[in-house]
Amino acid sequence: MSVLVVMEQAAAGGWHRISREALAAGKRLAAEMKLPLAAAVLGSPDAIATQAAQLAGEGVAIVWSVGHPLLERYTADGFVAALQQLIAEAKPAFVVFPHTYQVRDYAPALATRMGDVLVSDVIAMNVSDGAATFTRQWMGGKLNAQYRHVGSGPCLVSVQAGSFKADAADAAGAAGEVKQFAPEIDAAQIRTKPGEPFREAARTVDLGSAQVIVSVGRGIGEQDNLKIVEELAKALGAELAASRPICDAGWLPMERQVGSSGQTVAPKVYVAVGISGAIQHLVGMKGARTVIAINKDPDAPIFEVADVAAVGDLFEIVPAVTRALKGSA
Amino acid sequence: MKIVVAVKQVPERDAPVRVASDGRGVDAGDAWTMNEPDAYALEEALQLKERLGEGEVVVLSAGPERAESTLREALAKGADRALHIVTPEDGTGSLTERDTLGVAQMLADAVRGESPDLVLTGLQSDDLGAGQTGVVLAELLGLPHVTLVLSVEASAGAKQIRVKRELEDGWFQQIELRLPALLTIQSGGNRLRYATLMGIKRARSKETKQVEAAAATARHDEIVRVAIPERTRQTEILSGAADQIAAKLAERLKVEVGI
Ligand SMILES: Cc1cc2nc3c(=O)[nH]c(=O)nc-3n(C[C@H](O)[C@H](O)[C@H](O)COP(=O)(O)OP(=O)(O)OC[C@H]3O[C@@H](n4cnc5c(N)ncnc54)[C@H](O)[C@@H]3O)c2cc1C
Ligand SMILES: Nc1ncnc2c1ncn2[C@@H]1O[C@H](COP(=O)(O)O)[C@@H](O)[C@H]1O
Asked: What is the Cβ-side half-sphere exposure of residue B175, based on CA atoms within 13 angstroms?
């Protein structure tokens, strides 16, 4: 019995940033459940040796180095086969994943193959009387729902970006053991043929370095209404950004999207206009020093991270703010 | 090409939500709509059929009687037929009594009866946000899958397709796979159409087949408690008349931005 954290590497080398957060979550869970901490690294055998050794040097009791040539390039079929075998061998009580695009792609299938479910996108956990509960969001963050795993199999959870502080994983602990695990995978089991990752046209706006950002969401209603936020941005000398639905509709180019599938920003001031505050948006702008949100819904989740919450109709408030700013120029 | 699209009915986006009286569910009023990623999945299916010049688009939903209006909307947009797995609104056998695996099992039973070439689902539901049902369904059906798909390339009669998958941080990837297959569709890969008056009229003569949901099996994940989230930051709340809010906001902005 252990808490097993499945680590993910970044495409550019090193760990995927959420891996370290998942490790911190796993560490806390292991401590509170009084279980040993284990971690797994998957890949082609030579590529993972260094990272496995590194984990063993920082307080992970058992590091499973899951090596196979067919794991060099990610496929859901390869990862599900490998992890199902590892779980049968390691018999963890909990398996913690980072909630990355890759995990979204294979972890639900892994759970299904084990006849179980995955509690996905967890933002908090709580252990009391030896039982763990996990909190995930419903309704785009308007509600928090607490889940408890029942049944005899291991409890599978994936943790959302930014929900567990990565620092805790860095503390040096007792030296752990690296165990080699060679799963059986047959090339014929792999049913998808992934191509090389690519980018589309180069970015022409770098929101990452902007000091002031005015960001617009679906509350704006129509493309024609964008001019009121453009004018506010102009009056503030700000860059214009948006939530995903605005870019999906083609009202603003994709490179202006903020969030988990867009840019990550950390301006001095972030003004969110008609944005509800879904977690995928928040992870992209949580680093802002001051967040000012304008929303007609007093319960909008964006207000949970706002320093200033303006509750009202953006069509009245935004033009009036622009006028007031101009009047003083 | 025969394509099944799984669509879920979810609460209207701006509907006020409350915790249900038992403290373990949502009371979302009675304004319902098609889960937005599913609208993108439906659009991709309709465009595929148009590009190939042949095929059938079947929409599939599991949910209470009211879910029929969402299936009607899909038919009005151009789907050919609808399959409705009818569950009770609440209590025994309702959607909330089933976990992701349980919901996917209902969908899998219905899809097996259709033997489609392609199954499309949305990436994630706007209410539960599990982001899993499509992948679980693929596994139950023994189909290969790709998630976060933005577009699909297929040619008539071909057994192989190529899809464009969204990766993180602005990266993409092409993936090839054989049919039959399941794809979960990410928003933004296509532009959604509106139902036309003609479409709405035509939908009236299209078939919606109702099937009774199989009995629910016990959940593997129990919902202990549902609550409104607590605020984490000290927030200054401005409310009242718009011009007063605007004046205060402008003052604050001048200080913060330095103008
Ligand atoms: C894998 C994945 C990746 C994603 N990546 C991103 C991402 O990178 N970035 C991103 O933003 N989203 C992303 N999303 C989508 C995200 O989940 C939300 O759907 C999205 O952020 C919602 O955008 P919104 O807040 O503009 O719209 P909504 O959620 O529809 O909110 C609109 C808000 O406007 C308010 N409003 C309406 N009218 C007015 C008015 N007149 N005055 C004032 N307020 C008004 C409403 O109260 C509401 O709060 C992703 C989702 C998934 C599943
Ligand atoms: N009750 C349902 N009926 C039909 N499709 C569903 C249902 N629940 C989920 N789905 C599909 O599965 C996708 C992912 O849902 P979820 O796993 O809840 O995030 C949705 O976008 C739908 O396409």
From this structure: 29
Place of tokens 């103008």: B259
- Report the run of H or E that residue A202 belongs to, with start and end: none
Distance A238 CA to ligand 1 centre (A): 21
Strands of chain A, DSSP E: 3-6, 37-43, 62-67, 94-98, 118-128, 131-138, 143-149, 155-159, 177-181, 192-194, 198-199, 212-216, 239-242, 269-273, 290-295, 308-311
Q: Which of these, A226, A248, A247, A230, lies nearest to A239 by C-alpha position? A: A230
Contact A4, A40 (CB under 8 A): yes
Q: What is the pLDDT of residues B69-84, one digit of tens each?
A: 999 999 999 999 999 9
Q: ipTM of the assembly?
A: 0.96
- Paired with A118 in beta bridges are A156
Q: How many CB atoms lie within 10 A of CB A155?
A: 24
How far, in Å, CA of A96 to CA of A5, rounded? 5
**Which chain B residue has the Cα nearest residue A284?**
B169
Please name the amino acid found at residue B7. Answer: V
Contact residues for B28 (Cβ-Cβ < 8 A; gap 6+): A139, B11, B15, B17, B18, B127
Indicate the angle between helix axes B133-141 and B100-112, nearest 10 degrees. Answer: 50
CA A215 remoteness from chain centre:
21
- Nearest by CB to residue B250, choosing from A151, A250, A321, is A321
Select the residue of A77, A111, A194 nearest B173 (Cβ to Cβ): A194
A217 lines ligand 1 (CB under 6 A): yes
How far apart, in Å, are the Cα atoms of A103 and each of A11, A75, B147?
A: 14, 11, 10
Q: In the beta sheet, which residues pair with residue A45? A: none
Q: Which of A58, A71, A45, A64 is nearest to A5 (CA)?
A: A64
| Ligand 2 pocket: which of B121, B132, B186, B208 to mutate (most atoms within 8 A of CB) | B121
Q: Give A87: exposed, middle or buried? Use CB within 10 Å, 0-12, 13-18, 19+.
A: buried
Determine whether the interchain pair B239/A268 forms a contact, defined as Cβ–Cβ distance below 8 Å: no
Cβ distance A150 to B221 less than 8 Å, yes or no, reads yes
pLDDT digits (tens, 9 = 90+) for B9-49: 999 988 888 999 889 999 888 899 999 999 999 999 999 99
Cα–Cα distance between A288 and A309 in angstroms, integer?
15
Shortest CA gap B81–chain A (Å): 27
Q: What is the mean pLDDT of each run of 10 residues along chain A (329 residues)?
A: 96 91 96 97 94 92 97 97 98 98 98 97 96 96 96 94 78 82 98 95 86 98 98 97 96 94 95 96 95 96 95 98 85
Where are the alpha helices (H) located in B10-130, listed in sequence order? 36-52, 68-77, 100-112
- Residues having CB closer than 6 A to ligand 2 are B 6-8, 35, 37-38, 61-63, 95, 100, 103, 107, 121-122, 124-125, 128-134
How would you class B91 by CB atoms within 10 Å of its CB: exposed for 0-12, middle for 13-18, buried for 19 or more? exposed
